[in-house]
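Because discrete structure vocabularies remain unfamiliar, we first show an illustrative case, written as a sequence plus integers encoding its fold.
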Amino acid sequence: MRFDETYSGNVFIKSHQNYEEAKAVLYGMPMDWTVSFRPGSRFGPARIREVSVGLEEYSPYLDRELDEVKFFDAGDIPLPFGNAQKALDEIEKFVKKVLADGKIPVGMGGEHLVTWPVVKAVYEKYPDIAVLHFDAHTDLRTDYEGEPLSHATPIRKIAELIGPGNVYSFGIRSGLKEEFEWAKENGMFIAKFEVLEPLKEVLPSLEGRNVYITTDIDVLDPAFAPGTGTVDCGGITSKELLASIHAIARSGVNVVGFDLVEVAPVLDHSEMTVNTASKLLREMILGWIK
């Protein structure tokens, strides 16, 4: 595995040119093999990079510039089309290398199943992690129509690996009754509909802990992010999600990795979603990479 050059031509704005000197590594996981409704998120990472050139490098929210953060854009991981298990194995191998080199993994999906192998790798290095999960959907199924490797299952797999009490979900507004019951019975935190206020209540209890953060773009209302595979009305505003990112940035948690998934450019005719995703990533990079 080489890190002296990126896998693909386009890079996120102001990414560092030297892997060895970088504090964090940005990478794409172009997989959407298991989606149950509308595919297209495998094109998300590349398009997010392309539109990032339109961003200002400075965040007025955080009073920080991208030049202040050394992050390397490794491009998209080459994944075997249609082979979910092999693709997940490749992602896990990649992230293990990044972690072994003492760097923070910053992922772009791709469907939400890609978060599962990343958390497996992070948990191996940081067995005390908590996971913060922003999403419209619970993603707590054991399978979807008999298939355990599904974008509807990653949070259940993660909860069973690290313990349900270490998983905190926010903005949830869809899921099977059984999923909500399983979460309640097993002590998993779920904030239905809202994000910012319940997040502020939880963050003090996580101060000093290693935290991985996964954000499904569909936590936003479709009015703010129509370009995603499974839209669900009743979501939060982009302003609230930005405020949540900043609340984490100003908290005492130690972010050891994060991702943003389910951006589908082919469904994003106004390009509102990819531009929103690009700005969200800028704020995450500036706020969470110290």
